């Protein structure tokens, strides 16, 4: 089996260019992580939707930038495909953060997508050591793909 991922834009914004880049980025990321039969979804949403998700699943009633729902933390032997889960990205928040951090909207979307992807793979940043590992992996992946801090 081969990897498959699906990108859904549930916002009014035209993300055609960004989705084309993310399609290539996820193909690259899956290859770099040596995954051959993984499946996941990326859903682009507005502030109201991500706040609703954050409130319902995390009991935090505020807008956030990205939320990941990992379905499996490990691969069971014998299963034909690894269902990783879903990544929700708030497009409006990505715009705000790209301005705050002084880089492009595309770079911010890629960062949030890769951040969510590594959460699906079981990485976290609950403490300093975990954060150091996860953020180094994110930066290495983005840089090697060609998405630098522009």
The largest sheet is: 4 strands, mixed
Structural class estimated from helices and strands: alpha/beta
Tell me roughly what share of residues is in helical segments.
Answer: 40-55%
Number of helices: 5
The topology string of helices and strands comes to EHEHEEHHH
What are the low-pLDDT stretches, counting only 5+ consecutive residues below 50? none
Describe this structure in words.
- Helix 1 (16-32) links the parallel strand 1 (4-9) and strand 2.
- The protein has a four-stranded mixed beta sheet.
- The mean pLDDT is 92.
- By secondary structure, it is of the alpha/beta class.
- The protein has helices at residues 16-32, 47-58, 91-101, 105-120, 128-145, and strands at 4-9, 38-45, 66-70, 82-90.
- It is globular, with a radius of gyration of 15 Å.
- 49% of the residues lie in helices and 19% in strands.
- The protein contains five helices and four strands, in the order βαβαββααα.
């Amino acid at each position: 089996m081969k990897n498959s991922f699906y990108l859904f834009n549930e916002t009014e914004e035209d993300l055609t260019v960004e989705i084309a880049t993310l399609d290539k980025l996820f193909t690259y990321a899956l290859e770099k992580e040596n995954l051959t039969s993984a499946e996941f979804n990326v859903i682009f949403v507005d502030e109201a939707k991500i706040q609703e998700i954050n409130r319902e699943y995390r009991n935090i009633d505020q807008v956030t930038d990205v939320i990941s729902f990992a379905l499996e933390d490990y691969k069971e032997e014998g299963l034909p495909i690894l269902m990783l889960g879903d990544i929700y990205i708030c497009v409006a928040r990505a715009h705000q953060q790209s301005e705050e951090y002084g880089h492009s909207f595309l770079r911010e979307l890629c960062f949030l997508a890769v951040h969510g992807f590594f959460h699906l793979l079981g990485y976290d940043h609950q403490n300093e050591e975990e954060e150091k590992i996860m953020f180094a992996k994110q930066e290495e992946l983005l840089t090697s793909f060609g998405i630098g801090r522009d």
